[in-house]
């Protein structure tokens, strides 16, 4: 009986490991068909015969974003919404412009690891580890430096220089998602009530 349990556990482990692997693409690309009404995890594919170079192109990342937020940043996203050819490829990127003192406030990308390179200026960057430590890991980085924010962890950037700062970042998802901690704090008090534990 014990040998049978061990054998079944081994088979189950191998089966689960196989499911955890990322599936290889079944075609060269799957350009997003933004006109399709079909909804699924990702976007439906455009007919490959209709695919053209513009499906894989975005111009203008050399320009700062057109709107400054209250926190002093401008974000220019380049994801599947801007480049339909990114559909199913698992990558995206962005440019962030920071005014002096500008902050990209604490936030989470639930579906992506982020790697950031400073093109101009100096940034204080960091992330908070998960429980039980909840440690802040942070440093100041300068032009040419690179920093990585692991998937799903709260992270931030702040311009600590006297001039503007610019960063480029890459994300390991075509749609990394964004949860702003500030927005979450505004929503939660109305929807979540603290229920104290009953003492025994």
Roughly how many Å apart are the termini? Answer: 42 Å
CATH architecture: Sandwich
- Total number of strands: 10
What is the typical, i.e. mean, pLDDT?
83
Reported by name, the CATH topology is Jelly Rolls
Order of helices and strands: HEEEEEEEEEEH
Query: Which stretches are poorly predicted, pLDDT < 50 over at least 5 residues?
Result: 15-22, 189-195
GO molecular function, one term: manganese ion binding
Keywords: Apoplast, Disulfide bond, Manganese, Metal-binding, Secreted, Signal
Subcellular location: Secreted, Extracellular space, Apoplast
Family: Belongs to the germin family.
Keywords:
200 residues, five-stranded antiparallel sheet, 2 helices, apoplast
Please, could you describe this protein's structure?
There is one protein chain. The strands form two sheets. Strands 1-2-9-4-7 form a five-stranded antiparallel β-sheet, with no helix packed on it. It has a five-stranded antiparallel β-sheet with strand order 6-5-8-3-10. It starts with a helix and ends in a 9-residue tail after the last helix. The longest helix is centred in the N-terminal third of the chain and has 19 residues. Helix content is 15%, strand content 29%. About 8% of the residues have low confidence. The protein is flat. The protein is of the alpha+beta class and 200 residues long. It has one domain: Jelly Rolls, CATH 2.60.120.10. It has two helices and ten strands, in the order H-E-E-E-E-E-E-E-E-E-E-H.
């Amino acid at each position: 009986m014990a040998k049978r349990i061990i054998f079944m556990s081994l088979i189950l482990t191998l089966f689960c490991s196989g499911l955890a692997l990322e599936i290889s693409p079944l075609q060269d690309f799957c350009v997003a068909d933004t006109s399709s009404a079909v909804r699924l995890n990702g976007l439906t594919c455009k007919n490959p015969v209709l695919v053209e170079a513009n499906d894989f192109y975005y111009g203008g990342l050399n320009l700062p974003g057109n709107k400054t937020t209250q926190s002093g940043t401008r974000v220019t996203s380049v994801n599947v919404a801007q480049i339909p050819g990114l559909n199913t490829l698992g990558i995206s990127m962005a440019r962030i412009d920071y005014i002096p003192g500008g902050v990209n406030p604490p936030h989470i990308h639930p579906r992506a690891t982020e790697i950031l390179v400073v093109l101009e200026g100096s940034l204080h960057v960091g992330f908070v580890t998960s429980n039980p430590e909840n440690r802040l890991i942070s440093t100041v980085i300068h032009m040419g430096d690179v920093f990585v924010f692991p998937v799903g962890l709260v992270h931030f950037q702040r311009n600590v220089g006297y001039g503007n700062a610019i960063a480029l970042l890459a994300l390991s998802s075509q749609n990394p998602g964004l949860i702003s901690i500030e927005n979450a704090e505004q929503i939660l008090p109305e929807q979540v009530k603290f229920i104290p534990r009953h003492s025994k």
